[in-house]
Design a protein that fits this description.
This protein is mainly alpha-helical and 234 residues long. It has 2 domains: 73 residues, Winged helix-like DNA-binding domain superfamily/Winged helix DNA-binding domain (Arc Repressor Mutant, subunit A), CATH 1.10.10.10; 150 residues, GntR ligand-binding domain-like (Four Helix Bundle (Hemerythrin (Met), subunit A), Up-down Bundle), CATH 1.20.120.530. It has 9 helices and 3 strands; from the N terminus they run αβααββαααααα. β2 and β3 form a beta hairpin.
Length: 234
Amino acid sequence: MAKQKTRRDSRNAWEQAYGQIQDLILRLDIKPGETVTETALSQRLGIGRTPVREALKMLEQEGLIVTTNRRKRVYILTVGEMEEIFDLKICVEGAVARWAAQRATDADRAKLAATLERMKEIAAQRPSDPSREPAWLDRWLRSDRRFHEIVFAMAGNKRAQQVTRNCNVQWHRLKLGMLTLEGRIEKSVAEHEAVGRAILNRKPAAAQKAMESHLHNLKRELIKIMKLFHYPNA
């Protein structure tokens, strides 16, 4: 029993470290290209070095951390890699939208319809006070995640969901910046609604086309931002 508790505590510690370090990276509290060390992160988070070490190993497997000359740093995504990520997302998520339209139950459709309404409500509540915008943006991101979770559940393909989740971790930091641009969330609402309505109306081909169009738009805008800020091409 004591050994089981020790193993459980150890796992909880590295999972906690993983979650906190990932959050620092995705929210740009640790910048792309910045060097990270076990000692500094351990002190910053108040967690032992061993769970921090395990967390860094997992983040390196996911591509958020890279090691060069024995130094670990936050990965800098290139334009070419962004293109590859979205080529894959377009293929996978387009098919997922098609399957969702074909396989969804009435209960699934009710959930999706409610989520679409929630997304529109949140988009309409954009605050005029800039200090309140981060909280509003967080609400929007949660509704966006909920929408895609429901679509994946409708499609019934866990491997497709895992592939997409791994891809999304890579570009999440840029997504946060892009969503603050004037009009982007409003466009995203319209694009999500086109996907959702096609699924709700049991139109597989239209659902696939709408999802692919949404992702092509995202890809184009993200690459434009990356080139504007001189991200490496390859």
